[in-house]
User: What shape does this take?
Amino acid sequence: MLPLEGITVVSLEQAVAAPFATRQLADLGARVIKIERPIDGDFARHYDTTVNGMSSHFVWINRSKESLTLDLKSKEGKEILEKLLSEADIFIQNLAPGAIDRLGFSPEVLNEKFEKLIVCGISGYGTYGPYVDKKAYDLLIQCEAGLVSITGTDDTPSKAGISVADIAAGMYAYSGILTALIQRSKTAKGSYFEVSMLEALGEWMGYPMYYSHYGGREPSRTGASHATIFPYGPFPANDGKFVFFSIQNEREWKRLCEEVMEKPEYVEDSRFNSNSSRVNNKNLLRGLIESAFMNFTANELVDRLESAKIANARLNSIEEFYRHPQLEARNRFREVQTPNGPIKALLPPATFNNFEPVMGGIPSVGQDTELILKEIGYSKEFVNQCKALNII
Assistant: This one.
């Protein structure tokens, strides 16, 4: 039996944060009913057409779900949602600020009507405060949380290359829902909670926040290097390729000097014999390391670093990651069905010894609407009437 088998999730979701959370629940066996707009569905379906004509964002975070189309501005649409929620365990939504309240499904109302229902709301900035009505997209939250100020180079502040604010919010929604399920198992009552993208990403900003507030200066933007550790990051080899490595302690520093660079005289050099000294003299030390590395190819350096037990990596392209020998050796891909044919998808990162996660298909817009409505007691005549009125 899968861990969340028997749990029903109704999700009024769009874009990334909430769909990412509910896909984690679906992976563990929960039934996830995704509510979408009639005809067009979740706007994330139309971000691009790169995966056999489908959006790369959408296929990533919407497998193993059922799609139900509803016009929630209609009386019938609201009645259907309420009937679904009366039998659900979890309701999650990430509509625009205040939208769920205007529809009549505020967490307070739902908590009073359905005492066992767990309700989760995801928003950009939370449900109160001066920013409550401010629009929130991933880049904008990265800026507001200070992430962009410490990412990139001296000349160019940069955002992270993936939707880290959305992903952070989705993961805290996921873990919050699991927490609420455990709590309900003890109290027999549901609860409601909120996750803001700003606060979710803010949790990830703990180290730079402490460093800046108590240290009196902001971490510098250092590209792929590190603001407070050196050497750390990319260094060129004589074949023009880069090798990434990190020195975390004095044992590793000694091995780098003696076994990799073949410069044992640097080990006790007062300019480099502690991390603080190396950071203070990093421009000088960078030149010395690069000079020593010019004696080797990237592959030779990786072999030397590995032999010296120093953490290292090659700079992979995305396609090289897709074909990574470690993923291949661990058989981490599964075939997932989509409306446009099968695709390969990575297994979720938590690997259990006694079950494999669900890897169900990607739904087309509204593909499960009629079955779900029939299941909760609506007649074929009602379904046809709603279709004619574009309610479903």
Observations:
- The radius of gyration is 26 Å.
- The domain at 232-314 is CATH 3.30.1540.10 (formyl-coa transferase, domain 3).
- The chain has two domains: 8-204+328-388, 232-314.
- The first strand starts at residue 8 and ends at 12.
